[in-house]
Amino acid sequence: MVALDQENRSNKSITRVAGLFYLAIIALGIWSEMAVREMLIAPDNGPQTLANIMASSGVFSLSLAADIGMILSDIAVGILLYLLFRQVAPRVALAAMILRLTQAIVLAANLLFQVAAMVLLRGEHFTEAFGAEKLAWAVQALLELQGQGYDLGLIFFGINCLLTAWLILRSGIAPRLVGLGIAASGLVYLSGSGFTLLTGDQPIVITFAYLIPLIAELAFAIWLLVGAGPKSAGRRN
To answer: Is residue 171 part of a domain?
Structure first.
């Protein structure tokens, strides 16, 4: 009985910390991607993108720091959810963690595109060598590659969401509706990223469907924060 109580307290501590990190992922990711890059990067317009970034260079640099914080939080959530779900299905939990960490690795490597763009912008010799217009298009290309890199990372995360949804439903760590929402999120990520990587665009219906991951992941993060834990269950494969 004492051991069970200690395990329950440990699970509640893990879920609360995971919830905090999950909220950090959502806040930092939305800010860096939607409030900064989407506002600064003008589609198919290198000179305008360059002018926007030069006018908000400090904010653009902070978006890089926000992404680093998001990735570190993602690593923490991946590990913490594994510690929770390994009690329910250790192999599935391990696979989910590996996929989430793979996404984090892809996104971390992907930040090099933004770093490269910042290096070009900071060096006057690059402007002299390329000329202002060619430099602007080089920066535009790097940032568009960064966007593609995010979609590549979301392929791994989409599969992670499907496994995580199964673990949520199996463990009872959150309401069934939350688990189904995370499953739907995985399908949205896979569909949206698949269309973007293969065709360079995505149907408008999928663009609006990204509201599903926002709501579902926020609900899951909040539920974790209130300290829920997996229901008692035997170890399964």
So the answer is: no
